[in-house]
Each structure stands twice: as structure tokens, then as C-alpha cells.
Amino acid sequence: MRVTQSFARENENLGIFRRLSTAYRKAWMKAVTVNNFVSFSVDNIRAVVDSALYFVGLLVIGYPAVSLGSILAMSNYSSRFWQPIINIASLYNNFVNAVAYLERIFETMDEPVDVKDAEDAYEMPDIKGEVEYRDVTFAYEEGKNILENVSFTVKPGESIALVGPTGAGKTTIVNLLSRFYDLTGGAVYIDGNDISKVTLHSLREKMGIMMQDSFIFSGTIEDNIRYGKLDATEEEIRAAAKTVCADEFIMGLENGYKTEMYEGGSQLSGGQRQLVSFARTLISDPKILILDEATSSIDAKTEKELQKGLQELLKGRTSFIIAHRLSTIKNCDKIMFISNKGITEAGTHDELMAKKGDYYKLCMAQK
């Protein structure tokens, strides 16, 4: 709603809604018309039949050949005869509505799945966290490569920062690791396992992924954090929140961790939603951690406090960090500058600053 209002799109969106609702209204009116016509017809026919029964029974044949009880019984049988027909008309109305709902469901179910398990896919075994990209090429549209022949290796426990201009392919690199997309060429390995040959579930359960858009589900804050580990205890949940500096603001809410959230978490600020998402990622205890602009909505003071928890979070985990803030990436083991469909520079913060290349220019621009 806020996006619609900010771009003054009320009239255009209202037109779209009217077109969609008109089709539904026409189908609904057709069903109601049929239902009303059948009900009206049956009611009138039944009234005529009942009148005929009374007229013929009482006035034509007369008592005692036909008793009043016999006529009432026949009238009751007549009502029972017509009732199923009325029910069928009502069922038709419900059927038309159900068909409309089923069409939407089947449209979703029929959407092609771009990424799926190979026929001979196996479960990803326990991993240490070594990641290798080998001659990776990828294009969202055929013939328009975003990445070309990208190769690098990350040792277990290393933290890698990906920096570069918007649209260079930083997020694409980590999306390929999670198999949100399949490669156009080359391969990605985790501890020697080709990720295209392992099941998606076993691959992704080894990873903790935190994107810039932090989604909050309806339910308590506790439930939202527990989403990362369904059997987590209250103590584990609070410990995770403390590590990422979320405990203070959560305890300041009316019901603390039991505070109910609307879907999307509209009661929280953008930074608070990110902290909850951070705790959710931490509690899942992943071997490989992906942080895509994970601190973009957090104020400088909170981010400074969060750095301590972040260092704890990165310990012993292979991590990929995408960020524009220098404070978030300068302590990473390796920084890779992504540009021109590949990696143009790689090294530590000090090494890249000494080169005075693209990374140096980016840092100077921030200052």
C-alpha cells in the first residue's frame, strides 16, 4: 500500500483490481442466477403439486377414500422428492466458486520448476565448508552472461567479502552456491561434492542465508527465531538474540519474546527485523553462512555493537559477505572485487588498498 501511494498508482491499481474482480463477479452472478432460477422453479412446481394433491384428494376423491393423513403423507413425500434438486442447485453455486479457487491453485502448481534434484541426487554428507567455483558461467537471459569462467577456492572457515558495483553479479555468486539457479557452465563444489548432484534439501540445510529483505512471519518473536531450529529451547533463542544485539529491544516490547507479530513484522523497524533475522540464522548453526547486505538497515551504533557478535558468528564457518559498508568487510580473510563478469581483484583489505585499484577507489568514494 505504501509503495502504491508513494508512486501515486492508486487509480492504475484500482483499474487492475476492477478487471480481475469483474471476471469473478460475472462467474459468481451466473452461479447465483442458476441457483435462484432452479430454487424458484422448484418452489413453484412444488406448490402446484401440493395444491393439486389437496384439491384432488379432498375435493375430487373425497373422504373416506382418501384421508387427510394420506394427503399430508403424500405432500411430505413430494417435499422430500424436490429437496435433492434444490441441494444440487446450491452445490452448483459452490462448485463454480471452487473451480475459480482451483484454477488459481493449479496455475501455481503448474509453474515450471527451474531448479530440481537430479534423478540420481544423493544426500550431502557432513561438510567442513570448503567451496570451489570452477569455470562458472551464468546468464539470466541466453547470450547475456553475468559471470564468465569464474574460478576461486574458499578454505573451510574463511570469510569472503564480495564487493563491486550494482549489477556486477555479487548476489548471483551466492545464489548459485545455494542453487537458487542452475549454472550455465562450469561447476560449484562443496568439500568435493558437485552441488548439482546432491539434493536441494541436504544442500540448503548446511547453509544459513540472510538477505537484505528480512521477512517476519505471523506469530511470536520467539517463533520467528525458532524457525531456524524448530527444537530450540528458550535459552538457546535468547542466547542467539543476545549475540546479535537483539535481546535489548525484544525485552523492551510489551510481551518480550512472546510478543505477537503481524506478517511482515510491521510493528518493528527495518533494523529490528534484520536483527531478528540475524538471530534466526545464527540459531540454525550453519556450516556455510551467506550475508547479503545483512546490516544495511541497522544504524551505525547497533552495527558497531553487532560486530563483536558477528565475529563470533563467523568463527569456524565459511562465510560470504556482501556489503557496501567498509566496517563490515575490512576484517574478512579475503575481499573479491566483482566487475566485468568476473573477479578483477582479490586480497585482504590492506593488500587491495595498497594496489590502489577498483577496491581502493570504492573505499575512497565512501570517505
UniProtKB/TrEMBL annotation:
Q: What is the annotated localization of this protein?
A: Membrane
Q: Which keywords has UniProt assigned to this entry?
A: ATP-binding, Membrane, Nucleotide-binding, Transmembrane, Transmembrane helix, Transport
Q: Which residues form the ABC transmembrane type-1 domain?
A: 1-97
Q: What is its main location?
A: membrane
* PANTHER family documented for this protein: ATP-BINDING CASSETTE SUB-FAMILY B, LMO0107 PROTEIN
Q: By what name is this protein known?
A: Multidrug resistance ABC transporter, ATP-binding and permease component
> ABC transporter domain: from which residue to which, for each copy?
131-365
User: What is an example of a Pfam family matching this protein?
Assistant: ABC_tran
GO cellular component: a single term: membrane
Please name the Gene3D superfamilies in this protein's record: ABC transporter type 1, transmembrane domain (1.20.1560.10), P-loop containing nucleotide triphosphate hydrolases (3.40.50.300)
Q: Where are the transmembrane segments?
A: 52-73
Organism encoding this protein:
human gut metagenome
Any one Gene Ontology molecular-function term assigned to this protein's record: ATP binding
Give the bilayer topology: Multi-pass membrane protein
